[in-house]
Amino acid sequence: MEHIIQEIAETVSNNFNKELQKLVRDRKDISEFILEMKRILDDVGTKLCAEALEQLNEAYRKSPDRKRKWVVKSKADPNTLATIFGEVKYNRTYFVNKQTGEFAYLSDEAVGIEACDRMDTSLRAKLIDEAGETAYRRSGEKAADSVSLTSQTVMNSIRELGAISNNAVKVKEKKKSVKVLYIEADEDHVALQSGGCAEPKIVYVHEGWKKTEKARASLKNVRYFSGMYKDSEQLWSEVATYIDEAYDSEAIEKIYLSGDGANWIKKGTEWIVKSTFVLDRYHISKYVTVATAHMSHTTPLMWRYINQRDKPNLRRLFSAIISATEKRTKKEAVEEARRYILGNWASIAHQGIADYGGCSAEGHVSHILSARLSSRPLGWSREGVDQMARLRTFKANGGNVYQLLLSEKRKRKEASDHRKADREIIHKRELFASHETIGNLTVLNIGKRTPLVECLKSVRGL
After folding, report:
1. Chosen domain end from 78, 97, 118
2. Average of per-residue pLDDT values in the chain
3. CA–CA separation, 321 vs 308, rounded Å?
4. Cα angle for residues 288, 289, 292 (degrees, 5° grid)
5. CB under 8 Å to 316, separation ≥6 — which residues?
6. pLDDT tens, 194-232?
7. Which residues contact 183 (CB under 8 A, 6 or more apart)?
8. Are residues 107 and 184 in the same domain?
9. 211 and 293 share a domain?
10. Structural domain of residue 378, as residue ranges?
């Protein structure tokens, strides 16, 4: 250990002096000095990691406790582990269990390196974090410049992580007492590699609005839910479960559910107790524009009738616009706008309720989903859309990818330990059963000494 530390210290010192001279003598830019120092320190990092792993392996190889249960199968098996420093190359010993016949790299297992691992968990987490923000190829480049990571490697890391549960981030404060809750819902439209379009859904729950330092409104205690759902009931079940866990249901007086009027959004009122659906103003505005853009003088009139909840006059205005519209396709568009606005009339009326604060779903779709999934000309698989939507939602909820990966790894280790314990118990039972069976054989208990008796006694250990 002292030898490697001394060697590293000399390397760092020599390179520092050399680069410092270049900085002063050749008037190099400080950024060149920084980059060279990073390269040197990354190299130091790989050497220290390799030294630590090999020293741990040596400790297992010499351990008396290990020798009682495990024997050496092979020595100095090489392995390479990609890390944030670069590739760590080291040797380890392969052991076999005397009782169960199980094979293992004990030192690797002790520090969480699984048999199939080719990448350190911290690098994998950084890779997944970057993939949540940028294209797979670029995220591989940004995660570690000292290791070559292809877009396929990045995608494989996302696939291995799987679909993150919307409940993965624990509720910090439970059974809070609030009078009014707000739920907003929408969906994105993502182009698929196979053609067609995927529609990941997003729902978020919050307690209202607050002003930030820049005088912008932000949501209070927002919680996001997203993913590809064949059945929206599963999504609403998750939302309802969260509300029940996070809030005191008896204290809640009203819940406003806002969206564009899609059936899956309205279905939320069947799951969320005390909820009232309110059509968001963005989509009303969109259909008002569709209906009046070619006759702009009717726009303020239509808004007046909507805001005053004057349904009879709004009907008459729509009829007049349709009658005056000559182009068939435009007439059909106006008729569709009429169906949408009049069909959601009751939920439009709810916008006038005093404590309803509006809906910002379009902005949240853009920030959480579209920014990665649909704002660029990309092609996705349905699985990829689901996983990316859930990853970005997990991070928006304050989730930490590194901690999630560690948690999953611990669960796998616990499950593996249970399986190993079960195998040892079974093995001991089998040994006991075979010993008991041999001990009860009549030929061993009749007193005669024959070749068969001598053979069976040697098996029993007598």
Report:
1. 118
2. 87
3. 19
4. 80
5. none
6. 889 999 999 999 999 887 766 577 899 999 999 999 889
7. 203, 204, 205, 239, 255, 256, 257, 258, 268, 272, 275
8. no
9. yes
10. 180-400
Q: Within 13 Å and on the Cβ side, how many CA atoms surround 10?
A: 6
308 and 221 both lie in a single domain: yes
Task: Tell me which DSSP letter residue 85 carries.
Answer: S
**Which residue is associated with the tokens 């599963």?**
234
Residues 264-322 have pLDDT tens digits of: 999 999 999 999 999 998 899 999 999 999 999 999 999 999 999 999 999 999 999 99
- Amino acid identity of residue 366, one-letter, is S
Residue 424 and residue 35: Cα distance in Å, rounded? 52
Give pTM, 2 decimals. 0.80
118 Cβ partners below 8 Å, 6+ apart?
80, 81, 82
Residue 289 tokens read as: 């524009």
Taking the C-alpha atoms of residue 100 and residue 426, their distance in angstroms, rounded to an integer, is 10
What is the pairing mode between strands 70-82 and 209-211?
unpaired
Residues 235 and 321 in one domain: yes
CA-to-CA distance for 133 and 63, rounded, in angstroms? 46
Give the C-alpha separation, 453 to 317, whole Å. 108
Tell how far CA 445 is from the center of its chain.
Answer: 66
DSSP string, 108-152: HHHTT--TT--B-HHHHHHHHHHHTTS-HHHHHHHH-TTS---HH
Which amino acid is located at 66 in the chain?
Answer: R
Cα three-residue angle 207-208-210, rounded to 5 degrees: 120
Q: Are residues 275 and 209 in the same domain?
A: yes
Asked if 369 contacts 200 with a C-beta cutoff of 8 angstroms, the reply is: yes
- In DSSP notation, 387-410 reads HHHHHHHHHHTT--HHHHHHHHHH
